[in-house]
Amino acid sequence: MIQGSSRIRNLVQSLRSASFFPSKFVNYRGYTSQAVASLQIASQPSAYSDDDELADVDWDKLGFGLTPTEYMYVMKCSKDENFKEGRLNRYANLEISPSSGVLNYGQGIYEGTKAYRAEDGRILLFRPAQNASRMKHGAERMLMPSPSIQQFVDAVKETVFANKRWIPPPGKGSLYVRPLLLGTGPILGLAPAPEYTFIVYASPVRNYFKEGTAPLNLYIDEEFVRASPGGAGGVKSITNYAPVLKAIARAKERGFSDVLYLDAMNRKYLEEVSSCNIFIVKGNHISTPPTNGTILAGVTRKSILEIARVQGYQVEERAIPVDDLVDADEVFCTGTAVGVAPVGSITYQSKRIEFKTEGSLVSKELYSTLVGLQTGRIEDKKGWTVEIH
Q: Mean pLDDT throughout 289-309?
């Protein structure tokens, strides 16, 4: 692996002479397929610089959409080998076999973490080793080789440093980092792919939900479930996400923000929202469903549990009957993309249950501490943040 920012600078500098964009696409903020497709074409020197000049982005209008940055990290290995050394490449489309394991059988997992620009100029990652560990766990379930924890963290560091001018100013968002592990080798019969590719790319983002920081309105869909016992709901497999799109679309057509799923066996216990974990608050007690194989062990979820315990809350991981929502004071969601999002209402069997969203909120208190740690405003005594320099 490449160590140290000076070596990353040298690598990025070497890419300048080997790859370039056509001038008409230099200032890409790219939500069009034409702009994204153009990134695979090499045509002019990189806009990357070693100073702190920010990319030309309207940070106030930033949402949670793809804004292509300049560099991505790529590393490959065969199924019987370990990952070795990867490198930074220009952000570009991938060339992949139509018979690849990921395209035919969904052999792929992904992660999500963020980089933040602190008020004092530091660039901080938040608990990237947790994401690395979760990817290793997911890779074992999907019968894939995976990068070591150090390889994963180093790749994320390199990707963030190379794209540092795309990290929003303090208070304007973050750089979302997306590591991917894909079975890219060709395979016709149902079997593990012969080759694997680990990729890290990034995009500046802000609020995940269109509501911004406004309370969410969730819908409990009794027809669809997100995961079932013995399946892959507890790992971040790409196969977990496309199946929820129909449920989400149907909920949004009815005016809801997202779907809250029940367990597959009894259809009476809360599991999670489409892309985030769920918490309920009653007095000084905070509860969340346990990660028992059908629920993803979120890094933000884990962090909020630890922060809440330190702040004196009674925290419990337990099976939560849907009927408990009636007595809840607050409900909130957690996730890397969403942060901590308050829930204003949950609709179940045509009944709308509303929750506290104003005044002194537990979710707001926990979120303030979380963001303070992530952005360096609160001293990190746990070693959760990793500085890139």
A: 96
89 bridge partner residues: 72
Which of these ranges, 29-43, 261-275, 331-345, has the smallest mean pLDDT?
29-43
Q: How far apart are CA 347 and CA 218, in angstroms?
A: 6
90-93 long-range CB contacts below 8 Å, 24 or more apart? 90/15, 90/19, 90/39, 90/42, 90/46, 91/39, 91/201, 92/39, 92/40, 93/36, 93/37, 93/39, 93/40
Instruction: Report how far residue 26's alpha carbon sits from residue 45's, in angstroms, rounded to the nearest whole number.
Output: 10
As a 3-state breakdown, the chain gives helix, strand, coil percent values, each rounded to 5, of: 30, 25, 45
For residue 159 the two structure tokens come to: 């990707």
86, 155 contact by CB (below 8 A): yes
Q: Which residues contact 195 (CB under 8 A, 6 or more apart)?
A: 76, 77, 78, 79, 183, 184, 185
**Does the annotation mark 114 as catalytic?**
no
Which pLDDT score, from 0 to 100, does residue 151 have?
98
The answer, as to whether pTM is greater than 0.85, is yes
The pLDDT of residue 11: 57
Residues 6+ apart with CB under 8 A from 17: 45
pLDDT band at 29 (very low <50, low <70, confident <90, very high): very low
CA distance 312 to 211: 30
Q: CA–CA separation, 172 vs 152, rounded Å?
A: 26
Tokens at residue 179, please?
Answer: 């590591």
How does residue 12 score in pLDDT terms, banded at 50, 70 and 90? low
What's the CA gap between 291 and 278, in Å, rounded? 11
Chain-centroid distance of CA 341 in Å reads: 15
Distances (CA, A) of 102 to 106, 111, 191, 231, 361: 4, 16, 11, 18, 43
| CA separation, residue 124 to residues 44, 48, 70, 119, 165 (Å) | 30, 19, 19, 11, 14
Q: Are 240 and 232 in contact (CB under 8 A)?
A: yes
Residues 324-358: tens digit of each pLDDT: 999 999 999 999 999 999 999 999 999 999 999 99
Catalytic residue chosen out of the listed positions 114, 164, 236, 382: 236
> Does residue 236 register a pLDDT over 80?
yes
